[in-house]
Amino acid sequence: MNHYQEEVEKAARALRKGLVILYPTDTIWGLGCDATSRRAINRLLKIKRRTDSKSLITLIDDVANLSKYVKDVPPMAYDLLQNSANPLSIIYPSGQNLARNALGPDGSVCIRVTNSSFCKSLVQAFGGPIASTSANFTGQPTPLYFKQISQELIKSVDHVVNLYQDVISMPKASTIIRLEPAGNFTIIRP
After folding, report:
1. Which residue blocks in 49-142 are alpha helix, DSSP H?
2. How many domains does the chain contain in total?
3. Per DSSP, what are the bridge partners of residue 21?
4. How does pLDDT run along the chain (190 residues), one tens digit per residue?
5. Which domain holds residue 61?
6. Helix, strand or coil for residue 40?
7. What is the CATH number for 84?
8. How far lies 129's CA from each of 35, 85, 104, 157, 179, in Å?
């Protein structure tokens, strides 16, 4: 097993144990945990020092898995995902099969089908969706690469993925779109 595979498996094991990981996503470094575990999400929110009811982004590995976590996937979602050049997180009106605290107060769910080979491998090795948020304390600037992440935050998580820590790219957070039941959409974050 090579270093990459070992890191995928270590992170997947941590997720299966209900732990919080610090990992590289297809956008920026993130905090992640099992999106179906209320306890794991509570731990993630405590580490992040988030008290508001802002929902998390749920990462999945394939468009084919959307219907597992979204009650009614509007056809427009598939068009948006297929034609998006950048990572796209979509807020769907009603989620399912996820922990209640992974959803918005109105039952909506924000899902991103990841394009990152590492994240795809991690979701597959873990066997489920990952609740994800930026690797910063609430109210602090979002770090764009690993060396900008607070040492205090790094020490707070249960597992740190040891890949891509020296990579300095200037990524940005994903675009977020809210889909309405009628088929309209609103851009929340460009």
Report:
1. 66-69, 75-83, 117-126
2. 1
3. 32, 159
4. 799 899 999 999 999 999 999 999 988 899 999 999 999 999 999 999 987 667 799 999 999 999 999 998 988 899 989 988 888 999 999 999 999 999 999 999 999 999 889 999 999 999 999 999 999 999 998 888 899 999 999 999 999 999 888 876 656 678 888 888 777 888 888 7
5. 3-189
6. helix
7. 3.90.870.10
8. 6, 22, 16, 19, 20
